[in-house]
Write a structure and sequence with these properties.
This protein has nine helices and no strands. The chain is an all-alpha fold and 241 residues long. It has one domain. The longest helix has 33 residues. The protein starts with 27 loop residues before the first helix and ends with a helix.
Length: 241
């Protein structure tokens, strides 16, 4: 029989996820703030999809303020120094994403003859303007907290009723990836399979970086590497043509 027991030992790094098991404890109001933050981010992405700079700043503020607030000045719950062994996690996560997209996601979509949609920000990205670079740095930090907030919210809800960390983590991962993928629905013209395969399931690699280290800086760096590699390739292709 399939069992989740001990299946997540590879994520153990001597530090557990915060909050889901009331260590440290958040009030109902605190959890409500986290949930509202997630909802507002999704609304912002949908309504401001054509206003890149404003959208990026809003996503950053809507997530970073609640994140700092629930830490209650114990910012190490989310933000830690990068350790030498974290560099290995960053590199493996980045390479894992590239291989996944090249060898799994793209071939599956090609076999399905599924029409792909480009991200609406790519024309801006091709220019790699200073404004774009600054705002994308802000937005990607906000996107990391969107995934982390969803993970912790679901873990808290499931752990509260089951007391089982592994089941809570498994459902939290699935829920986090699904919500993050669907948040890109407007940006990728509603191409649902592309969204779920690349933006959804593909984000497991930077979520893994967070889950392994419990450090948002690590997953943030992976996310930056993934997105900027795509932007740079787009700029190179635009230059060639």
């Amino acid at each position: 029989m399939f069992s989740l027991k001990d299946n997540f030992k590879f994520l153990d790094d001597g530090i557990d996820f915060p909050f889901y098991n009331d260590v440290p404890k958040l009030s109902t109001a605190d959890w409500a703030i986290v949930l509202i933050s997630v909802i507002l981010v999704i609304i912002t992405i949908s309504l401001l999809s054509s206003h890149h700079a404003l959208k990026s700043v809003m996503i950053f503020l809507i997530t970073i303020i609640p994140a700092l607030y629930i830490c209650k000045r114990n910012y190490g719950l989310f933000f830690k120094r990068i350790r030498l062994k974290d560099i290995k996690t960053i590199i493996l996560s980045f390479l894992g994403y590239i291989l996944y997209v090249m060898l799994i996601a793209t071939p599956i979509l090609a076999l399905m003859h599924y029409p792909l949609a480009g991200n609406g920000i790519l024309p801006i990205a091709e220019q790699l303007s200073p404004t774009f670079i600054v705002t994308i740095f802000l937005q990607l930090m906000g996107e990391e907290f969107l995934k982390i907030f969803m993970l912790l919210l679901i873990m808290y809800a499931i752990y509260k009723s089951t007391g089982n960390r592994d089941i809570s983590l498994f459902i939290g991962i699935v829920g986090s990836l699904f919500v993050f993928g669907m948040a890109h629905y407007t940006a990728y013209s509603g191409r649902i399979f592309q969204i779920l395969l690349i933006q959804g399931l593909g984000s497991i690699f930077n979520l893994y970086a967070y889950m392994k280290t419990k450090n948002v800086f690590v997953s943030y760096i992976v996310h930056l590497m993934i997105d900027f590699s795509g932007f740079i390739m787009s700029a190179i292709q635009a230059g060639v043509h």
